[in-house]
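Researcher: Here's the sequence for the chain we discussed earlier.
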Amino acid sequence: MARRKTKTASEMFPLVAEFKRSGMTQQAFSEKKQIAYGMFLYWLKKYNDSKQLKRQVKAAHFTEVKVTSAQPERMIIIKYGSGTEVRIPV
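Model: Thanks. This is the structure I predict for it:
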């Protein structure tokens, strides 16, 4: 049976994590695991990008904003056909 050449993240991310712990060079690790060097570099970048994205999402947060002087007598009112109203103080 022919060996499948395409790999998935669930197959490659554990290998990339293993590489990061190994202390080996990228070239040596890919040769040891019999992975094409270019494919290994592709998955290494995907892995690093996914970790960076997770850090960015984790660091994202909302900041509370307090309105100190609102004039509710002046509003923009948007009325939709369904009867929904949106009132925006100005």
